[in-house]
Amino acid sequence: MGSTIVLATANPGKVKELSEPLGALGYQIVTQSQWEIQPIAETGQTFIENALLKARHCAQQSGLPALADDSGLVVEALQGAPGIYSARYAGEHASEADNRHKLLEQLQQVPAAQRTAHFYCVIVYLRYADDPAPLISQAHWQGAIALHPSGDQGFGYDSLFYLPDRHCTAAALSREQKFQHSHRGQALRQLLTVLPHA
Fold first, then answer.
1. Choosing from 69, 70, 98, 152, which is the catalytic residue?
2. How confident is the model over 154-175, as pLDDT tens digits?
3. Which domains, from first to last, does the chain contain?
4. 92, 135, 157, 171: least buried by Cβ within 10 Å?
5. 70 catalytically annotated
């Protein structure tokens, strides 16, 4: 079982983005829902604190190594919001569409030139629950918030996250292109350089 990692997420988009590269290294990936592990409350004040909370919880419940990502959208004109609240920006049980709608509402009066934003991601790997030296990688992806959603790939805020260098939103990229450029792809590639092969 040493080559099995529990992914501390119930988000199917994240599971997809994280599983394939780890699987290519020989790891067997199971999700917290396959272990019937209930999500833990994200009470941290930072992305790193929340990722550590989630990974530790899954490692404790499963007895296996655990990997957690905490990521979110940081919008400069909103003083860093939605930030660590990205997944629940419009409320605790809000849908992704609700969150996007609230973001557009908040930015209604903000001109295009001031709609800069970045996605931030931190990934934490714990060998066991009390691991005193977790592997931590982090990265960000610069862009801006579009006036309207476009593109039908991806999830979350991807359809609003405009990439000026590519003249499209993150939701218009293929999965391979997204992994190449995104905050999660960059953070995961960093982690893979220090993660032992299974």
1. 70
2. 899 999 999 999 999 999 999 8
3. 4-194 (3.90.950.10)
4. 92
5. yes
